[in-house]
From TrEMBL:
Superkingdom assignment: Eukaryota
GO terms of molecular function: sterol 24-C-methyltransferase activity
SUPFAM superfamilies, alphabetized: S-adenosyl-L-methionine-dependent methyltransferases
Domain Methyltransferase: 71-169
Protein's UniProt keywords contain Secreted: no
Protein name: Zgc:194242
InterPro entries found in the cross-reference section: Erg6_SMT_methyltransf (IPR050447), Methyltransf_25 (IPR041698), SAM-dependent_MTases_sf (IPR029063)
């Protein structure tokens, strides 16, 4: 009898621990998609610096940005990718745009990009992807990192991006698939939209062509880059 009671309490304790881990994973997942002013949100910004900075800088390189391009970063976070892209837009016509749904990230990036914003070289929007206030067919290059798995509707998001891009424009998506798989196993994402093939199918369905994923390596870190070309 005592053994049965002890076993029951062990099982209950394990179940409670599993529930706690699941709740924590869900909380972290929400903060990754939409950081807020909180301890978890602050920790997420540290994660961005450790995990995203290399991805964002490499996404910028892979975009092959020209000095007079109009470049858009989606889900820009603290602004690492924005800063890297701004250095390449040296021509007077060169312009940088950024969109992030998080007010916290918008304000943080705005501080980091204060000089470029004041000179009119950069414009940042705190906006939902689908509702971003950017004119149709005005963007040459788009990049984003660890972003698409948080979109409520992949096709709607892909369609919104395609709308603002010029014909022949290039989009680069950077991720570390190994890390994404681990996060998915902990239920940090909802559904199957984290899978690259699902995202790539959504891109193709709205008019992107030459959609492909390549393995890349930088500073001993292996990551994946998904390329897509906008066709009107």
């Amino acid at each position: 009898m005592e053994g049965q009671i002890a076993l029951r309490f062990q099982v209950q304790g394990l179940t409670g621990l599993e529930r706690h881990e699941e709740m924590l994973a869900n909380k972290v997942g929400k903060q990754l998609g939409h950081p807020t002013y909180s301890l978890t949100g602050w920790l997420v910004t540290k994660f961005f610096k450790w995990q995203n900075q290399i991805l964002e800088e490499n996404a910028v390189k892979l975009c092959n940005i020209q000095p007079n391009d109009t470049v858009l970063e989606l889900g820009h976070g603290p602004g690492f990718g924005l800063q890297a892209a701004a250095q390449l837009l040296t021509a007077p016509e060169g312009k940088l745009l950024g969109v992030d749904y998080s007010q916290y990230m918008h304000e943080m990036a705005s501080k980091h990009m204060k000089e470029q914003i004041s000179r009119g070289k950069a414009v940042l929007y705190c906006s939902d992807l689908v509702a971003m206030p950017i004119e149709e067919s005005t963007v040459d290059k788009v990049f984003h990192c660890n972003c698409y798995y948080f979109w409520p509707d992949l096709k709607a998001g892909a369609r919104a991006i395609h709308r603002v891009m010029k014909p022949g424009g290039t989009m680069v998506t950077a991720l570390r698939l190994e890390s994404v798989k681990k996060a998915a196993s902990k239920n940090m994402f909802s559904g199957e939209s984290w899978r690259p093939e699902v995202y790539m199918e959504a891109l193709q369905s709205v008019g992107f062509t030459d959609v492909r994923m390549e393995n890349k390596r930088e500073k001993l870190i292996t990551f994946q880059a998904i390329f897509a070309t906008a066709v009107k």
